[in-house]
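User: For a benchmark we're assembling, each entry needs the component sequences followed by a predicted structure for the full assembly. Here are entry 17's components. Please fill in the structure.
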Amino acid sequence: MKKIISGNEAIALSFEDSGGVFASGYPGTPSTETLEEVARLGNVYCEWAPNEKVGLESAIGASLAGGRSLATMKHVGVNVAADALMTLTYTGVNAGLILMAADDPGMHSSQNEQDSRNYAKFAKIPMLDPADSQEAYDFVRAGFEISEQFDTPVMLRTTTRISHAKGIVEPKGKIEPKVGAWEKNVPKYVMLPNFGKIKHVTVEERLLKLQEFAETSPLNRVEMGDTDLGIVTSGISYQHVKEAFPAASILKLGLVHPLPEKKIREFAGKVKRLMVVEEMDAIFEEQIRAMGIPVHIGKDRISLCGEVSADIVRAAAGAPITAAATAPVENLPQRPPTFCPGCAHRGLYSILSKLKVYVSGDIGCYTLGALPPLSAMHTCICMGASISAAHGMAKVNEIAGRAEKPVAVIGDSTFFHSGITGLLSMAYNNGSALVIIMDNRTTGMTGGQENPGSGQILQGEPAKQVNMVDLVKVLGIDNVVEINSYNLEETEAAIRKGLETPGPYVLVDRNPCILRYRVKKPLYAVDQDKCTGCRACLKASCVALGLTSSGEKPKVGIDPNICNGCGVCAQLCKFDAMSEA
Amino acid sequence: MNVFNIVIAGVGGQGVLMASKVLAESALASGMDVKQNEVHGMAQRGGSVISFVRIGDKVYSPVVMPGSADILISFEPLEALRYVHYLKPGGMLVYNKGTINPSTVASGLATYPADVEEQISRACGGAHGIDALAIAQQAGNAKAVNMVMVGSVLKKLPIDAQVVEGVVSALSKDKGVEVNLKALRGGGAAA
Ligand SMILES: Cc1ncc(C[n+]2csc(CCOP(=O)(O)OP(=O)(O)O)c2C)c(N)n1
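Assistant: Structure for entry 17:
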C-alpha cells in the first residue's frame, strides 16, 4: 500500500523489508528519526550507541556475525566513525552493511556543512544518493545487494530535504531476514600490515569493478529531452532541476561514487551545454573536468555554500526566476530557538552570564546559552570539545600566569559521547578547570533520545543507568558536587567555590529535561504593583515573559499558557514582584 | 492540474507539523501526488517554523519557492509577515491573530511590531485574520488551533472537505475526533 513518509522513515521501513537484522547509531539531525522508526516498526533489533564510532563498530560486528546491518548518523558523526570506516573498507563485510550519513546543506541544525560524498571518495566505497522517499526505500535494498556483491560497506547519503521531506512510497515485497555464518578469517579481518597490504590492492580492484557496474546500473539513468542543455545531477538537486527545466536532458546519478565515466562522456557528447548541479562541494564537476569533459555551467554559477533551489538552477542557466508578489518584509524581530520555559539550563546560564567567566562550550540545547541576552558561551567546536579545550586553555593560562579558571559546560549525552576522555585527560594531566555537566537524562537537542544515563533504551524499556557522579569520580576527579540550577543562590556559591579551588572541579546538575519528561510545576505571576519595570528578569530570556504596558518603564507579565514554573525570573527580581500564582 | 503550493508558518510547538500531515494525507487519499517538507530539529525550541505542502499530478521538489505559494497559512501574525513573500501574485493569506512573543522580544532585545496587522494588510491586500484560539477553545481544546487553521482554508483547496474530515478523524484519538472536527468546521465558518 502507498504511504506518505519521510526519507528517514522510508529507510527504516526498507531496512526492515530488506532483511535487516541489526541497526545502531547516534542521534543527529537530520538522521535521528531513522532509528526511531526502526524501533517504532518494532520487528528488527536496534539500539542507540553512545557515539557514532561505537554505532558503526557494532554494525560491523553484526555484519561479521552474518546479519545485514545499518549504522545511522548525521554528517559530522561520520568524522567520529571515520577511524572504523577507513579500515572497514579494507576488510569488507560478511553480511551487507550500510552506513547512512545525513548531510545538512544550509546548516538548518548543524555546526558545519561538510559534504559526505568526500568520504565515499576517501574510503573508496560506493555511495548512493536518493532523490526522494521512494528512492530512499529502494536504495536501501540496492545498497545491501551492492555491499554483498562487492564485499564493501556502502554509504547511503541523504540531505535534510530527503531525510525530512515526505513523499509517496510504495513498499516492495519483504525479504525475510536470515543470519549467515560467523566465520573466522584472519587475513580478511585482521588488518595487520601484511594483511592490510593485500587488502589495499583488493580495494583498488573493487573500485574499478564498481565503476564498471556504475556504467550499466539502472541506479544511474539518462532522461533524454531537449539537447540544448544537459544536466548531471543527483539527490535533492535532481528535483530542483526538474522544477526548473522539466524539458532538459538529465543524467541522474543514484550511485554517486564511483562515477560512470563512459556514461557521462556519452551524455556530454549529446548535449550542447553541459551543466552540473550539486549541493556543496564540486565533487562531480572536478571529476568530470578531470575526465577531460568540458563543464559549461557549474560551481562558477552555483555556490559551494548552502542549498540549491529551483531558482538557483534557473539563475545559473540564465533563465528568469520566480517573481514574488511582495518583497520580504525587513527588520522583523528574529525568532531564534531558545531554552524552553522551565528548562534547567536557564538558571545556570543566568549565573554564568552574571559572573562573566570564560565558558568553553559544547553541543546541545545548552549551546543556546551563547545567544543574547545570556551570551555566556565562548567556544563550541564539536561534541566533547568543551572539556578538552578548557583543559588546554587552563594549561596556557598557567604558563601565561593568568589566574582565571575556564568553565566547561557539557550535557549528559555529549559527555557519554566524547566528554569522558577529555575529563580523564584533565585528571591524568593535572589540569584545572570547572566542568559543569548538565545531566538532564536525555539527548535533548535532537528531540529527547535515550542515552546511557536515561535508565531507558531506544524502545523505552528499562535499562542500566550509569551514575554520573560515580563515573566522574572513577576517572580520577576528587571534587564532584551535585547542584540544583533552579536555585540560583546555591548554584552561584557552588560555581564560585569551584572556581576558587585549584584542580579539576566538577558540578553535576541532575534536573530532568522538562520537555522530554513533561515536568509541570506551579506557575508564577507578577504583582504589577511591585514590578518597577527594571527588566532584570528579562535576562532569563524566557518566552513566557512579556511587557504588559507601553510607555517609559513598561512592566513585565508572565503568560500562564507558557510559564512552566521554574522560578528563575522570580529569583532575578530584586523587588519580590514574582511569586507562585 | 498544476502543482498547488501551500505554506504553513508558525512557532515551534503550535502544531504546524500536524496541520501539514493532515493536508498531505488528504492529498494522498484523493489520489494526488504530494510532497511535504518542513525543517525541524531546533524547531521545538520556540523557533520560527515553516512547512511546505505541494500537491498535484506530479510533484518534484518538496520546497516552495518564494513567490509561488497559492496559500499561506500562518499560526501567528509576525510569522505571517516573515513569510508573506512566499505568496504568488494573487495568493491567499489566512493568519491567526493571537501573538506569541519571540525570545528576542521577551528578553527586551526587540519590540513586537504594534502595527503587525496593518503591515500584513499592506503586504497582502486580501489577508484575513481569525481568532483561532477562541474557536479552538469553543471546540473544546486550545491545542486545536492547528485544525482551525486548516479548516479556514478548506474551501480554497483542490481537495474535497470530506476527505480532510476523514483524515482528521483517522489521525485523532478518541475524544479528539469530535474536538478536531468541530475546530475544523469552526475554522471553515470563520473564513
Ligand atoms: C558528532 C555529532 N553527533 C551528533 C550531533 C547532534 N547533536 C547535537 S547536540 C546532541 C546531544 C545533545 O544532548 P546533551 O548533550 O544531553 O544536551 P541537551 O541537548 O540534552 O541539553 C547531538 C546528538 C552532533 N552535533 N555531532
